[in-house]
Structure prediction request, 187 residues.
Amino acid sequence: MFEKFKDSIKNFGNFSEVELLQIADRLREIYIKKGSFLVKEEQNCREFYFVDYGCFRHYTIQEDGNEATLNLYVEGDWMFDYKSVITQTPSQNIIQAEEDSHVLELSAWDFHELVKTSDAFFKVGRIFEQAIQNQDYQNNRITPEEKYTLLLASKPRIIQKFQLKHIASYLGITPETLSRVRRKMIS
Prediction:
């Protein structure tokens, strides 16, 4: 169960077995049912979550009542509400399970405690970079075709796990445009 987690941590740097155990000892396992919330609006996000299996959608509800997908997470991804964790203010966003899932939770407090013990743990802070990665997909200077191609290359499991309307929202395009792009790529 912790193998995927260890592989993910190793992507951030070289950690000894002792250091990996120090992180693992601070993890909490959480099983989440489809439709349940990991983070709700107006709730402080004080944890980092590693998706062991399942998938999650990170979204906000706009003033007009429509949902805008900020990120989509699948097995092997780290997730959290960036602004809420950094500022320790209530989240304006929601992280919801799209299927029955299992996550490993590391509290921000435990993360800071680990960083105090060794500079090696400072490298784990690269999970913050993953939180803002989706900006590439929402860049309006690239075409919908380029966005979809980038998604296929970097996160192909998203296509299998999420509804097209959520993928389109994540890419910053309409569902109709996404359908046209997909048809064009198949032809």
About this structure: The mean pLDDT is 88. Residues 34 and 49 are 16 Å apart (CA to CA). The beta strands are 28-32, 37-39, 47-53, 55-61, 67-74, 78-79, 93-97, 101-107.
